[in-house]
Amino acid sequence: MILGKDSGIYLIDAHYARDQLASVYLIEENGKVALVETAHTKSLEFVQDKLAELGLFAENVEYIFVTHIHLDHAGGAGSYVQAFPNAKLVVHPKGVRHMIDPSKLEAGVIAVYGAEFVQNMYGKLESISPERVISGENGLVLNLNGRELVCYDTPGHANHHNVIWDIKTKSVFTGDVFGIGYPELNVNGEVFAFPSTSPVNFDPIKMNQSIDFVVSLNPLAVILTHFGAVLDVPRMALDLKRMVEKYTAIAQKNLASYDRVMAIKTELVSCVKQEAYDFGVRLSDTKFTEITDIDMQLNAQGLDVWLTINYNSK
Ligand SMILES: [Zn+2]
After folding, report:
1. How far is the CA of 300 from the centre of ligand 1 (A)?
2. Which residues, in sequence order, are bridge partners of residue 102?
3. Could you tell me where the DSSP H helices lie in the chain?
4. Ligand 1 centroid vs 175 CA: distance in angstroms?
5. Concatenated DSSP letters of 53-75
6. What's the CA-to-centroid distance between 67 and ligand 1, angstroms?
7. CA 176 to ligand 1 centroid distance, Å
8. C-alpha–C-alpha distance, residues 24 and 36, integer Å
9. CB count, 10 Å around CB of 44?
10. Which of 127, 194, 202, 214 has the least CB density, counted as fewest CB within 10 Å?
11. Per-residue pLDDT tens for 284-307?
C-alpha cells in the first residue's frame, strides 16, 4: 500500500466540486508535515481534521507544495499559509508572483470559468507575503525531517508545473501532467487515466517529455491529484501518450470547424469513452458524462487555445 501509515502519505478528499475529484496529500515524517496541493479554501477543514486524527498540530506543517497554480491545486494556498504559521509555500518559479499577488490569476480564471463560479468556489484569493514563499526551482530539494522532497519542472499541462519526487517511497506527486484518473473509472484496482489539456499552456511535446521524465525516475507509484495512487506507471505512460496523439489529431482535424470547442469536445468524448471501454470500464453514458464532462469541456477549450497559438496566429 503506497498510501497510509507505512509510507506516511495520506490522501485527503478535498470535496472539490464533488467527492473524489481533487485531493490534498499529507506527508508525515516523525511529526513534521508537508502538504501537496491546497484545492480550495473549503478543503482546509478536511486537512485540519486529518492532522487532529494523526495527533498533529497546525505548527507541525513545514511545507505546502502546489504542483501548479490552477485553482483546483492552489486556490486554497493563501488560506493554508494563514492556518499553518510555520509553513512555507513551495511553488514553481513561474507561479511565485501569482501567489504573492493573485489578482491576475483570479482575472484569468474568471475569464475561463465565469465570475459567479469563481466567487462561489474560492471566495477571495488571499495574497501571500513573499517571505512565506519558496521558489520551487528544478531540482530543488526540500528537507522534511530528513525526508527529501524534490521539485522537478514538468511543463506540458501548464508552464508553471512541478512534480514532487518523494525519494523515501519512490513516489511522484504528478499534479495534472500525468493524467487524470477518477476512482469511478478504475477497473479491478487498475487506474484508467486520460490527459488533461485545460487552458492555456497545453503543449503535447512538452507533456510527452514530462511523462517520459516521470517514468525515468523509475517510481514505484505516481500519485495523482485527481485522484489517488497508480502503480503500473509505464503502462499508464503509454496510454497517456497515445491519447495525447489522438487529442491533437482531433484538434487539428477541427481547425476550421464552426463551433470549434464543441466540435473538438464531441470527438474527445467519443475518443476517451472508447479508450475507457477498451480498458474495461463499463459505465452508462449518463455516469460517464457525470464523471468526465467538466474535464472534457476544459480539454476542448485547452486544445482550442493550442490551435490558436500554433496555427491560427501564423
Ligand atoms: Zn487539476
Report:
1. 15
2. none
3. 44-53, 71-74, 77-83, 96-100, 103-113, 115-122, 204-216, 233-253, 260-279, 285-307
4. 7
5. HTT--GGGEEEEE-SS-SHHHHT
6. 9
7. 5
8. 6
9. 19
10. 127
11. 999 999 999 999 999 999 999 999
